[in-house]
Amino acid sequence: MTHIQRVLDPTLAYRFACRVGMCGSCAMTVNGVARWTCRTHVDKVVKNDRMEIAPLRNLPVIRDLVTDMREFFDKWAKAKGQFSGRLTKNEDFQKVKPDSLERVAVDAGIECIGCAVCYSSCDVVSWNPDYLGPAALNRAWTLVKDERDSKKIERLRAVAGDAGCHSCHTHMSCTEHCPKQISPTAGIAGLKREVSLALFRKAL
Amino acid sequence: MNVKTQTILWIAQRASAAVLALCVTVHLATMVYAIRGGLSAAEILSRTKGNAGWLAFYTVFVLAVTVHAPIGLRSVVTEWFGWRGAARDVFLLGLAMLLAVMGMRAVLGVFL
Ligand code: SF4
Ligand code: SF4
Ligand code: FES
User: Fold this and answer.
1) Does any CB of chain A come closer than 8 Å to the CB of residue B86?
2) Which stretch of DSSP H or E encloses residue A157?
C-alpha cells in the first residue's frame, strides 16, 4: 500500500498507524476477505498473481480505502461498552482471581483491537442495519463477565432482542476472520444465556 | 415491541424447535410404519378416531408449529425484505392463528 501511494499514485487514501497489529486501523478487504493489512503477507493471499484491495464491507466509504467507523463505535456505546466500576479511589483494589471462570471468559475476548474485520464479515450486519454486530457484543460480554462492573442488567437490556444478541445466526464468519482469534460467536452465545437467565429471574 | 418480548419470542422459538424435533421424529416413524404395514385409510382412521393419545400428540405438534413458524418468518421477512414494525407483527400473528385453526381442523378431522 505504501509503495502504491509513494510511487504509483500519491492520491491514494488508506489508513494505518501501528503496523504491528495493535491499533486496528488498517483493516481492508483483500481478495474478498476482510483482513488486517499490516500483518497480511501478500504471498499468503495473492491468487493467480492477482490481488484486489477494497474498503471494508458494511461501513460507509469516505474515500478510496478509508471507511467511516463512527457507526461501528457508536454501536459499542449502544451496547453499553463502557466499564462502570463499583469502588471509589479511596478503596483498595478489587481482587479478581485470574483463574476464576468469569475471568477466563473475559480473557478470551479482551484482546479486541477494534479493527471491524468481524463487523465487515457479518451478513446479519448487512441485512439488519440496527444489528449491534460481533465486536460491540463481544465487548459487552467481557463486561458482563467482569466482577468489578456494576451495570450488568442495564447492559443485558441493551444487548437483548432484535438489534442485539438474539439476531446472531451463529454463522461464525466473525470468529473465522478475527485476526486476534477471538470468538465473538461464543460471547454472543454467552449473552443469550445470561439474558435468558435474567428473564427467568425476572430481572430483565 | 420491547426487548423483553423479543427475548421471550427467541426462547419460545428455541423451545418449540425442541418439541418439533421430537414430534417430527414420531410423526415420520408412524407414517413409515403405517405405509409399510399396508394400512388403508379406513384402517388408519379407525385407529385415530376417539384416540385421546393421538389427539394430544397432534395438538402439541400443531401448537409447536404455530409458535415456531411465524417467529422464524419474522426474521426472514426482516432480513430479506426489510419489513419491520407493527404491521409485520400483526401479519405474523394472523398467520399464527391461521396455522392453529387449519392444523386443529385437521387434527379434529381424524379424531371425531
Ligand atoms: S456469528 Fe453472529 S455475529 Fe458472528 S458473523 Fe455470524 S451472525 Fe455475525
Ligand atoms: S473482535 Fe476481532 S475482528 Fe472484531 S474488532 Fe475485535 S479484533 Fe477485530
Ligand atoms: S496498522 Fe495497526 S493493526 Fe494494522
Assistant:
1) no
2) helix A152-159
Predicted pLDDT of residue A74? 98
Amino acid residing at A172: M
Q: Are A35 and A81 in the same domain? A: no
Res. B39 pLDDT band, cuts 50 70 90: confident
The total number of structural domains in chain B stands at 1
Identify the pLDDT of residue B37. Answer: 78
Pocket lining: A135 vs ligand 1, CB cutoff 6 Å? no
Give the CATH number of the domain where residue A74 resides: 1.10.1060.10
- List, for residues A90-145, the tens digit of each pLDDT value: 999 999 999 999 999 999 999 999 999 999 999 999 999 999 999 999 999 999 99
- Domain containing residue B56: CATH number: 1.20.1300
Domain region containing B89 = 3-111
In whole angstroms, what is the distance from residue B102 CA to residue A76 CA?
Answer: 45
Q: For A165, how many CA atoms within 13 A lie in the half-sphere containing its CB? A: 28
Q: Work out the end-to-end distance of chain A between its first and last CA atoms, rounded to an integer number of angstroms.
A: 48
Query: Taking a C-beta distance cutoff of 8 angstroms, is the pair A16, A26 a contact?
Result: yes
Predicted model pTM: 0.93
Give the end of a domain, one of A18, A46, A67.
Answer: A67
Q: Which of A44, A67, A90 is the last residue of a domain?
A: A67
One domain, residues A92 and A178:
yes
What separation in Å is there between the alpha carbon of A138 and the centre of ligand 2?
A: 9
